[in-house]
Design goal:
Number of helices: 10
CATH class of the largest domain: Alpha Beta
Helix content: 25-40%
Number of strands: 19
CATH topology of the largest domain: Beta-lactamase
Strand content: 15-25%
Shape: elongated
Structural class: alpha+beta
CATH architecture of the largest domain: 3-Layer(aba) Sandwich
Strand order of the largest sheet: 14-16-17-12-11-15
Order of helices and strands: HEEHEEHHHHHEEEEEHEEEEEEEEHHEE
Distance between the termini: 100 Å
Length: 498
């Protein structure tokens, strides 16, 4: 049974902050480093699941990828241009179709669609790179040239065939608001996505460790080729850059991809891990003007979303197999009046930080109980299924489990008899049975006594009683002799007396 609500916990936390710091901390403060594992000081922000951060980007979403739980949703289903965040799908399709160590030679036709204002990785016709290094050229400096090299190679010589694979993959993933027209994200009226769909694509991409290895790197060293000397690529994702004012700490952001066109605005998709949670965040359409530190609002938005996601939420097991989910009443047992109901399974979820088992509301539905008392009638076997228990948190259903008895509950015969007699009909039957029993016993006794008297008369008739009987006045007389049957041994001429 829920002991307190989340609102109560939040109020307690805020009161503690006031007493310790003397002032209420702001709900969202990007200045807190996500990688910092030191215990929070009294002045650190207090995050509330009920108070998400303000997001300037027109469309955004924050999802816990392991559970699919949406923590923040701002116009997440609105169709928008994704710009170079398109390249997450380009990388995903590439990883699914070719090996990372395959070698690809850059061709002149790969530059046919690359516009002068495009971001490029500086590839040169004739140089040969591995697919792995081409993915680094695609994801870190956001090279449109690399996108067409990969699309032509994976598409069997035709980048349009590669785009078809991108759209097929989007459909396979369940993206309902997405269509691609090119592998890089250049403006096209038939090229669009949604924040929700882009989060889904990112979730599929980070399932590949190789993607995270590349897209989560701040730098990437390329070997010398026939067209370029050895060089180092740098990421455009400021959340990964240790020199950036919005850097979140080493190892927190596991992958990221930026995007920008005049029409699309500033776009960003990242994945981050901390405290057993994997967050995927997307912002689309943010202002393109950087501040005096060179940071655009899409990075501030994402930083606030990640701070809040990790600060206000937690993921983990709330119910484990064998946990006690209820106590069922038991009647007519010498072993007690209740039996614990144990869960058949467990579940984990993303819930407001600080939530415990005690905050859950457990609603049992017992099966096979007495309709009047609602209790189980002994005997109850250990492991016997008792029914189901619905688990909810703050009024939201979360799971349902079958439950079983933790121990055997033996039947008490005296208690059963008393319970049976408590019913008026049963009591009347019992009284009638007792009366009938007395009647039967009386009749049997009478019959036995009567039978004994009959035996006495018979014995007197056949001469088995004494032959001398006292008479009146104390006189004695002889009883007549027992009649004898006539037979072959009778004396001639003699007849038995009748």
């Amino acid at each position: 049974m829920r002991l307190h609500t989340f609102a109560g916990r939040a109020a307690s936390a805020l009161l503690a902050a006031v007493l310790c710091a003397g002032a209420l901390a702001p709900a969202v403060a990007p200045a807190v480093a996500l990688a910092d594992e030191v215990a929070a000081a009294p002045n650190d922000p207090v995050y509330s699941a009920e108070q998400p951060p303000e997001v300037s980007s027109p469309a955004a979403i924050l999802v816990e990828a392991n559970y699919g739980t949406v923590l923040l949703d701002k116009n997440a289903d609105e169709r928008r241009e994704p710009a170079s965040t398109t390249k997450v799908m380009t990388a995903l399709v590439t990883l699914e179709h070719v090996g990372l160590d395959e070698l690809v030679t850059v061709e002149e036709a790969d530059f046919d669609e690359v516009t002068p204002e495009s971001s490029v990785a500086g590839l040169v016709v004739g140089e040969t790179l591995s697919v792995r290094d081409l993915l680094a050229c695609l994801l870190l400096p956001s090279g449109n040239d690399a996108s067409y090299v990969l699309a032509r190679y994976v598409g069997g010589g035709d980048w349009h065939a590669f785009v078809d694979l991108m759209n097929q993959k989007a459909t396979e993933l369940g993206c309902t608001g997405t269509h691609f027209a090119n592998p890089c994200g250049l403006p096209d009226e038939d090229h669009y996505t949604t924040a929700r769909d882009l989060a889904t694509i990112m979730k599929a991409a980070i399932a590949y460790p190789e993607f995270c290895e590349i897209a989560g790197s701040a730098t990437w060293d390329l070997p010398a080729t026939s067209g370029n000397p050895a060089r180092t690529l740098e990421t455009t994702d400021q959340l990964i850059d240790p020199e950036s004012p919005v850097y979140v700490g080493e190892g927190v952001v596991t992958a990221g991809k930026t995007g920008y066109t005049d029409n699309a605005g500033r776009c960003l998709v990242v994945s981050a891990e901390r405290d057993g949670m994997t967050l995927v965040g997307v912002t689309l359409g943010a202002s393109g003007v950087p501040d005096d530190q060179g940071v655009t609002e899409n990075f501030y938005d994402m930083r606030s979303m990640l701070d809040w996601g990790f600060g206000a939420w937690q993921a983990g097991a709330l119910v484990n197999p064998g946990d006690v989910l209820g106590v069922a009443d038991v009647m007519l047992s010498d072993d007690g009046e209740t039996v614990q109901a144990l869960s058949s399974g467990g579940f984990s979820a993303v819930v407001p930080r600080g939530t415990t088992f005690a905050d859950l509301t457990l609603t049992p539905t017992w099966e096979g109980t007495d309709p009047e008392t609602g209790a189980f009638m002994a005997p109850v076997e250990e492991g016997q299924q008792l029914g189901t228990v619905d688990v909810s948190l703050d009024g939201q259903w979360m799971a349902s489990f079958t439950v079983s008895a933790a121990q055997a509950m033996e039947l008490s015969i005296p208690a059963y008899v008393m319970w049976w007699l408590s019913d008026p009909v049963h009591a009347a039957i019992a009284v009638a049975a007792v009366v009938a029993l007395f009647v039967v016993v009386g009749l049997v006794s009478w019959a036995v006594r009567r039978g004994k008297r009959g035996d006495s008369r018979y014995q007197m008739a056949v001469g088995e009683r004494p032959r001398v009987k006292p008479g009146a006045g104390g006189q004695r007389f002889d009883l007549p002799e027992k009649p004898r049957k006539a037979g072959k041994h009778a004396a001639p001429g003699k007849h038995a007396r009748r």
